[in-house]
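Quick one: sequence plus magnesium ion SMILES, need structure tokens.
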Amino acid sequence: MATAGGGGRRGLILDRDGVVNLDPGYLYRIEECRFVEGIFALAAAFAERGFVLAIATNQSGIGRGLYTEADFAALMDWMAGEFRRHGVSLAGIYHCPDHPTAGIGRYRRANPWRKPGPGMLLQAAADLGLDLARSWTVGDKASDIEAGRAAGVGTLVRYDATAPAVERREDVWVVPRLADIVVLLEREEGMRGG
Ligand SMILES: [Mg+2]
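Reply:
Sure thing.
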């Protein structure tokens, strides 16, 4: 089991909309994609420390008929290229096109992959050999945090540009800037004696 014991690799599992790119709602056009400030520096900081990077993103826009699997794949191919240009490779991209009430046809179903379910994160751990207890996840919604918690991810971070400052709320770090997450990582690495 990839999730058991301490033998796995550390992962950084990123939500996409609102964390990697600004979220205008149901983004699928490459030309409309705007990256969140600090995302590439964040990704590089984790990659340099040996973290495996993945994206896990609800994409009910597919199930709702707003865009297609091919549209999603084209955007993600381009996005992965933008990460590579910044020296970071994405080891996995996971998405869930289904929605329990708004999906059309075969997309109308409950799916444990859809956040707040932990399915995408557990699949990433299995595929990529991640030790989730030593991994991090970053999301902008409560459902991202719930998914991470349900999957047993050790460090849960909520990016909220309206937060007044970095704040610990129960088991979650809330940060107003992505750059704040790099500071948290450096602090943790320092405490590990690295
Ligand atoms: Mg989001």
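The chain has a mean pLDDT of 95. The chain has six helices and seven strands.
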